[in-house]
Amino acid sequence: xxxxxxxxxxxxxxxxxxxxxxxxxxxxxxxxxxxxxxxxxxxxxxxxxxxxxxxxxxxxxxxxxxxxxxxxxxxxxxxxxxxxxxxxxxxxxxxxxxxxxxxxxxxxxxxxxxxxxxxxxxxxxxxxxxxxxxxxxxxxxxxxxxxxxxxxxxxxxxxxxxxxxxxxxxxxxxxxxxxxxxxxxxxxxxxxxxxxxxxxxxxxxxxxxxxxxxxxxxxxxxxxxxxxxxxxxxxxxxxxxxxxxxxxxxxxxxxxxxxxxxxxxxxxxxxxxxxxxxxxxxxxxxxxxxxxxxxxxxxxxxxxxxxxxxxxxxxxxxxxxxxxxxxxxxxxxxxxxxxxxxxxxxxxxxxxxxxxxxxxxxxxxxxxxxxxxxxxxxxxxxxxxxxxxxxxxxxxxxxxxxxxxxxxxx
Length: 410
What we know:
By secondary structure, this protein is α/β, with parallel strands linked by helices. The protein is about 40% helix and about 20% strand.
């Protein structure tokens, strides 16, 4: 390993075994002063121990940053993405992908604040997260030095990590000494489980894999009815009660959890080139996605709606690949946000055993007209005779092609 000159480094720090080993490794391999940054994105873990462990490993209190980013995360990252109805490969609601730009942004901001010349993450060299973190770093500070231990060190096994931890007296929880059956990443939007016992895509996940939802079979036999209010494309209320972005997602998560909503078992194409199997739980996000599409169905013009659907795969791919701070994502976002100016109103949903069923939608800006669609007397709102000319014009090129085929004897 070639050690670069690094004076101070900001580490994305969870307080777990891997990042604690990384912290000590940075001190020993680089001789650098380490600043830890721990983000609360609603992962459901107590963050106090991260501070205590950092202090125990010699980090000064002024170099320990623990921040509650839940509102910013939902308001500035999750909600803009949901305005786009983004689904990667038609299934994945991008729960892990959307968290990385915010963590990377805060690392760069903290690095500037404390005068650090480097940042560090704990992502492996096989996954997408290394790309997402580093693209965010370089987009916000093109001169920053990036340290990726998993691409540099020789601690290539669980045994070596534990031996290193024991050598430097890093506490190891009893449940961390054995080989973890699968890896988990979580935030307010979702949890993802990958690796080990989940690597065979032909084997059904064990019940223990699911942490955020009851099984659809165990969900209540009675449906839950809710109403979600929207303003300019963002959800703002549940059953008439106004909520902040984070509060709203927390409430939707609880509703989704209790009704077995949001489980996805997929094989996806990683940006780095391989396929991987993941088991994701996105309870609140799944409800939000369905509700948003429902309010758009009565407020978006056909052309705007179809254009959004055409652009959505590109937007989702851009987020998945880690290009949140790219000009193309910002351009797409501007177009998407323009489309949301009249996406306001309410959507009624029935939540039942893993299903999100739209049962009503209304908006002061609705483009839906009962006068136009009714099968009863429409009193001249739509002259059905006009359809004949419309159809003939649409059929002109098809009739021309048919006549040519006839001449060719086909």
